Predict the structure.
Amino acid sequence: MTIKDKLAAQRIYLFLGALFITSLVVSNLIFQKFFYWYPIDIEIFGAKLFEISVGILPYPITFLITDLISEIYGKKRANDIVIAGVFASVFSLLIIFIAQSVPATSWSFVKDDMFSTVFGNSSIAVFASMITYLFAQFIDIHIYHFLKKLTKGKHLWLRNNLSTWFSQFIDTFTIIVLLSSFGIIDWSNFKGLLISGFIFKALVALFDTPFIYLGVYLFKLRFNVNATTDEIDLL
């Protein structure tokens, strides 16, 4: 690769990292709102099957990006993005803590109680999310590269879906256990939220498969590397 190509690859990696970190931090900040994502009224284990947190909406994007980075830039670069995401989450938690500590003025549109209602549980959410996210992302990357090596770089759809499904189940299960333990959600909603969350994430992983194929094709066509085995070295 030429120096110009390396600079272009680094620039794209930077934008992917920014999208990843933004998706992660935003999912931690908006998680307290729940919505019903399917028009059919279905209940399972006493809870509506398709009631999930809006925080789950940007979250699958992070797994798509780590799979894309894993495929194009390699395992080390994917792990670097995960660590950067944890740092960003901790930093956002610090900012929220400081913002919550200072008193609102009498004319402030957002009062202290309103701010606490919206962001008061964010510290717990970020803490719980960081634990589960870090664990799930590293599992996703490890399984992805294990399957890539096992299949000798073939069957991109298989490693993209299996790695995400397995890691997303662990992530969904653990985060709901932690949030229930902290009293943010009621234990009676545990099974319904677990099944709904996993189904949603599994469907997203399935539907994003054409996009990862397209992304890998465009990247490797642009940088003239083998679409099956080669990875872009940024060093």
